[in-house]
C-alpha cells in the first residue's frame, strides 16, 4: 500500500530533513509540501492525502487549529505532529492526532510511527486483479497487456505508460496504477517511476548515490532511488 503524504512546516530545512527520512520508506509518496497551515489546508482539500506531517508553531494558523479543521473533513487524513515543542502534546491528542514527533527527528522513533500506521491501516481485502489496463484515447478505450508495459512515469500533470511501440497517457495516478498492477510484477524504482521487473535488463551506477535501470528496447535511463537498490537486486537475482 502507498500512502499519499503532505508535509507542512514553515521551516524549509525541517521539511527537507523529514522528507529525506521518509524517503527510506517506499510506501510513502510525498505529493506536496506547504510552508503554512493555510496553504496546507488547500493541499489537503485538493489531494486528499492519507497522511499529513504538520508542525505546530507556525506563522498564522497553527498546527492544532489545522488538525481541528481537518478532523471535520469527510475524509480526514492521519495527522502526525512534528514539532520542537513537547508542551502541546495534550492539545494535540485532543484533536485525535495519530502521533507526536519531536525535533530533531530520530529514525528509530519515526520507524515506530510507521509500524503503527501499517498496523492500523492493514486490510485483508486484496487488490482487484486486472487482466488488461484500460486507457481512454479520444472516443476509444484501448486495452493494454500489463506484460507489454516497459515502465510508467508521472510528472506534475499526467501519467505516461510506455510500451515498446508507443506511449499512452492515463487519468490514473501512479499510486492507483501500482495497486491495479500489484499482481503483475511492477517495482517502484523512484517516486515518479514504476518499472516492469520482467523488462529490466541492466542496473547501473554513476556514483555512490546515483543509480539507473534500463529496460528492453530503449536506451532511456530510468532513475533508481538508492534506498531501493538492494531490494531490486534481491528481487532480480532470486
- H/I helix tally: 7
Q: Within the largest sheet, what's the order of strands?
A: 2-1-3-4-5
Q: Tell me, what's the shape?
A: globular
Biggest sheet overview: 5 strands, parallel
Instruction: Count every beta strand, where a strand is a DSSP E run of 2 or more residues.
Output: 15
Order of helices and strands: EHEHEHEHEHEEEEEHEEEEEH
The radius of gyration is 20 Å
Class derived from helix and strand content: alpha/beta
Helix content: 25-40%
Gap from first CA to last CA:
23 Å
Report strand %.
25-35%
In round numbers, the mean pLDDT is: 89
Brief account:
The protein is of the alpha/beta class and 238 residues long. The protein is built from seven helices and 15 strands. Strands 2-1-3-4-5 form a five-stranded parallel sheet, sandwiched between helices.
What do these coordinates show?
This protein is an alpha/beta fold and 238 residues long. Helices cover 28% and strands 32% of the residues. It is built from seven helices and 15 strands. The strands form four sheets. The protein has a five-stranded parallel β-sheet with strand order 2-1-3-4-5, with helices on both faces. Helix 2 packs parallel to helix 3. The radius of gyration is 20 Å and the shape is globular.
Amino acid at each position: 500500500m502507498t500512502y499519499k503524504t503532505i508535509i507542512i512546516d514553515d521551516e524549509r530545512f525541517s521539511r527537507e530533513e523529514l522528507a529525506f527520512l521518509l524517503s527510506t520508506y517506499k510506501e510513502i509518496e510525498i505529493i506536496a509540501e506547504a510552508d503554512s497551515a493555510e496553504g496546507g489546508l488547500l493541499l489537503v482539500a485538493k489531494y486528499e492525502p492519507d497522511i499529513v506531517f504538520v508542525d505546530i508553531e507556525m506563522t498564522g494558523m497553527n498546527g492544532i487549529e489545522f488538525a481541528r479543521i481537518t478532523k471535520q473533513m469527510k475524509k480526514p487524513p492521519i495527522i502526525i505532529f512534528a514539532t520542537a515543542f513537547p508542551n502541546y502534546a495534550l492539545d494535540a491528542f485532543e484533536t485525535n492526532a495519530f502521533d507526536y514527533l519531536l525535533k530533531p527527528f530520530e529514525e528509530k522513533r519515526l520507524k515506530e510511527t510507521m509500524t503503527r500506521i501499517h498496523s492500523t491501516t492493514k486490510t485483508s481485502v486484496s487488490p482487484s486483479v486486472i487482466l488488461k489496463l484500460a486507457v481512454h484515447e479520444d472516443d476509444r478505450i484501448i486495452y493494454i497487456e500489463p506484460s507489454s508495459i516497459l515502465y510508467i512515469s508521472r510528472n506534475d500533470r499526467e501519467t505516461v505508460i510506455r510500451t515498446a511501440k508507443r506511449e499512452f497517457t492515463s487519468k490514473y495516478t501512479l499510486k492507483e496504477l501500482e495497486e491495479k498492477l500489484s499482481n503483475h510484477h511492477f517495482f517502484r524504482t523512484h517516486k515518479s517511476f514504476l518499472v516492469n521487473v520482467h523488462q529490466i535488463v541492466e542496473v547501473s551506477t554513476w556514483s555512490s548515490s546515483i543509480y539507473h535501470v534500463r529496460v528492453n528496447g530503449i536506451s532511456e535511463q530510468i532513475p533508481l532511488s538508492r534506498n531501493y537498490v538492494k531490494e531490486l537486486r534481491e528481487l532480480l537475482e532470486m
